[in-house]
Amino acid sequence: MNRKQFAVIALLPLAACAKRPDAIVPTEIPMAAYSNLDCTGLTRELNAEQGKLTSLSKQQNNAANGDAFGVFLIGVPMSSVTGGDKEGVISVTKGKVLSIQNTMKAKGCR
C-alpha cells in the first residue's frame, strides 16, 4: 500500500464525524409555511423551535465530542455510527427558526 492510499484510509473515519451545531447550514423553509399565523402564534412557534434547537444542539455537541473521543481511541466515530448525529434535524429546525423570524419581520411583529 502506498502512502496516499494509507493517508486516505487513515483519515476516512474523520470524514464521518458529527459536525458542531454552529457549522450546520439551515434548510430553506418557505415563509408561506407560517403565513397563516398571527404574531402570537408566530411567537409561540418561534419559542418552541428555539427550545428544540437548544436541546438538539446539546445532543449534537455530545455526539461531536463522542465522535472525537471514539476516533482518538478506536478510530471509529461512535456517535455517528450509532445514530447520535442530529445534523439533518438541526438543519431543518434552524430553517424553521429563520423562516418564522422572517415572517414575523414581514408582518411587523415585535
Characteristics:
110 residues; mainly alpha; 67% helix; elongated
Q: What amount of the residues lies in strands?
A: under 5%
Largest beta sheet, briefly? none
The gross shape turns out to be elongated
Q: pLDDT average, as an integer?
A: 80
Distance from N terminus to C terminus (CA atoms, Å) equals 63 Å
Structural class: mainly alpha
Q: Tally the helices: what do you get?
A: 4
Low-confidence stretches: 7-15
Helix percent reads 55-70%
Strands, count? 0
Order of helices and strands: HHHH
Gyration radius, in Å = 19 Å
Task: Characterize this entry briefly.
By secondary structure, the chain is mainly alpha-helical. It contains four helices and no strands.
Overview of this protein structure:
- This protein is mainly alpha-helical and 110 residues long.
- It is 67% helix and 0% strand.
- It has four helices and no strands.
- The protein has helices spanning 3-15, 39-74, 78-81, 87-107.
- The radius of gyration is 19 Å and the shape is elongated.
- It starts with a helix and ends with a helix.
- The relative contact order is 0.22.
Topology:
Blueprint: H1 3-15, H2 39-74, H3 78-81, H4 87-107
Helix pairs in contact: 2-4
